[in-house]
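Thread: magnesium ion complex, take 2
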Amino acid sequence: MGLIVQKYGGSSVADAEAMKRVASRIVATKKAGHSVVVVVSAMGDTTDELIDLANQITPLPAGRELDMLLTAGERISMALLAMAIKNLGFEALSFTGSQAGVITDSKHGRARIIDVSPGRIQEALNQDAIAIVAGFQGISQDTKDVTTLGRGGSDTTAVALAAALEADVCEIYTDVDGVFSADPRIVPTARKLKSVTYEEMLELAASGAKVLHLRCVEYARRFNLPIHVRSSFSNLEGTWVVADQPEGGNMEQAIISGIAHDKSEAKVTIVGVPDRSGVAARIFQSIADADINIDMIVQNVSAAATGLTDISFTLPRTEGSKATGIVQKLQGEIGFQSIQYDDQIGKLSLIGAGMRSHPGVTATFFAAMADAEVNIEMISTSEIRISIVCRQADLKRAVKAAHSAFELDADQVEAVVYGGSGR
Ligand code: ADP
Ligand code: ASP
Ligand code: MG
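Output below.
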């Protein structure tokens, strides 16, 4: 007997039937004697549809109003799920993020949780009810406005609540059976990981493996809270995200645990930049002042004849036009030649703690890219990750080639995708 926080993603509650199926899973957990808190996402592709709708009104909706709109998606789910549970004869109460005590900063569209005071959730549990919480949303401490935590943020709501309530485990229910060695939608032979460390999962999530929201992994690591990622469509054991790899637990100590890919970035190249101190600082300070996060940066060696160099960087595509606008304004002051913008890039990342102690990973990786005729445009590394940028059209082929090169393919196909549109 303990406290379990369960999170159901959009594909798990896509329609009324799915909602009822999830309700009976929740009731089964309750019947087994546990206290249950459920975090739920908007149904199916509701969030995308609401964004499309807003964009039909205006290309740049005000952050406050967009958050008001998007949080409605999770609100629909929480109420329907509470009804479905009551229908099964169990007490359930739904709560918005604000009612659940999820307090955030005031950055609309990507608010950070700064405190969780789940008094009402605790009360509901004390009354033996199942508490249903709308994911992905909170309330700003300063403005008291409704905020959202960024796409995929319901995972973070779940882990933050689990930490605040001192739950035994946070279960993330999704449309695949766990965390795989690559996205099962791209590599059907991907292998399910029995467990993965917080450290590796952080790199996977930061590199585009959207099965878990990056912040939720940061949160879980900080509170040493185990996450169990599993499917709501099967009863299979999923993947445990934990502090340390259990002895002999996973994939015979593979060098590479997983491959992530990301199609959401764009590349900006500033051509003919005078190679003198202070220039890079000026450019990147202006971008930082606009609150834009950049990912990779490459600066070429300057040509001896001209003393000019090129600087390229990648960033979320959604920030592309803002960033090029900012750089453009600096042209007079810095005196570079031109700006190029490329939104047809893809990023592939190899992640594995085993990399630390195995030389030759880069050589194997690059040879695989060469065999697959994938041109590498940019490279960046961390202790346990190597990322490359290539053409977006080559990305799928690159992921498959890297997956085979590191012998990650499962012996038998186990990567089932149960639902979701992959949007
Ligand atoms: P949910 O709506 O349940 O939050 P998401 O779409 O956010 O689901 O995340 C699940 C999806 O993540 C899967 O359908 C899969 O396509 C994708 N994914 C990407 N990388 C991985 C990976 N390494 N392992 C499992 N799933 C992955
Ligand atoms: N509904 C939100 C989204 O689609 C949050 C989530 O599902 O985690 O991004
Ligand atoms: Mg998700």
